[in-house]
Write a structure and sequence with these properties.
binds D-MYO-inositol-1-phosphate, 35% helix, globular, binds calcium ion, alpha+beta, Fructose-1,6-Bisphosphatase, Chain A, domain 1, 2 domains
Length: 265
């Protein structure tokens, strides 16, 4: 069953990505969500419709949690309220601001959970052609090649990533004290604007670690499987295993995990 789901999710992510590529000219056809920096385009919505239609047609008894349909209200409570069995957690375009500006760091993110446990993660970057995929117990891959987290053993050697959640783009952002604590302590910091791909970058060693407040399950579900299957660690800021209903996340190569948590908090 799960090998079929995995293949289906990979093909579906590529199909949605190809569709997004074909609509690059429509990328500034957008509207505001909660504030002027929280945006959705017609292509986000159309990508979501494509994903949901295909999943419902092939797996009518699976539930779906998806950003543009389920974005209002508390996403953690919505996930807690889902039944057991298989569920799909979708971000039709992760990195919408990059998409709007033509920055090639955005992706289709598809997470599959079984009894709320993330078991399959697929993330496709339409402009770079990188397809990241992992299945619990079977390793993590980019375009079919196995990937592993980086080797750095200390925060001082780490290239780290983070970002701002939608409601936190403010002069007194919660992210700023965290950034201030890490500046000068790690090798350097990147804020590239697509949580799903940032987690893939941890999984393949481009980043050593990533932290973020306020991610939603659709930002992190697929990436969580991919980082863990690449040998990394994913927890909340307290070090508890991450289950997508916590509001903080730390994803690293494992070796720097405790040191990063200590320095960050
Ligand atoms: C956003 C991106 C960004 C992260 C935000 C997310 P979206 O997702 O993943 O990197 O910092 O918190 O909301 O809105 O582009 O799907
Ligand atoms: Ca997102
Ligand atoms: Ca999105």
């Amino acid at each position: 069953m799960e090998d079929q789901l995995y293949d289906f999710a990979c093909r579906l992510a590529e199909e949605a990505g190809q569709y997004i590529r074909s609509r690059m000219d429509d990328r500034t056809n957008m509207e505001q969500k909660t504030n002027g920096s929280d945006l959705v385009t017609v292509v986000d919505k159309a990508s979501e419709a494509l994903l949901m239609e295909r999943i419902q047609a092939s797996y009518p008894d699976h539930w779906i949690l998806s950003e543009e349909t389920d974005g209002e209200g508390n996403s953690y409570d919505k996930l807690r309220g889902k039944p057991g069995g298989y569920g799909w957690i979708l971000d039709p375009i992760d990195g919408t601001t990059n998409f709007i500006h033509g920055v090639p760091h955005f992706a289709v993110s598809i997470g599959i959970v079984k009894d709320k446990e993330p078991v399959i993660g697929v993330i496709y970057s339409p402009l770079t052609g990188e397809l990241f995929a992992a299945r619990k117990g079977h390793g993590a891959y980019v375009n079919g090649q196995a990937i592993r987290v980086g080797e750095e053993a200390a925060v001082g050697q780490a290239l780290l990533g983070t970002g701002f959640y939608a409601g936190d783009w403010l002069p007194d952002s919660d992210a700023l004290p965290e950034v201030a604590r890490m500046v000068g302590r790690c090798r350097n910091l990147r804020m590239t604007g697509a949580a799903s791909l940032d987690m893939c970058w941890v999984a393949m060693g481009r980043l050593t670690g990533y932290w973020h407040r306020g991610l939603h399950p659709w930002d992190s579900a697929a990436g969580t499987v991919i980082v863990r299957e690449a040998g990394g660690t994913v927890t909340d800021y307290e070090g508890n295993p991450y289950d997508m209903t916590q509001s903080t996340i730390v994803a690293t190569n494992g070796r720097i995990h405790q040191e990063l948590i200590q320095q960050l908090c």
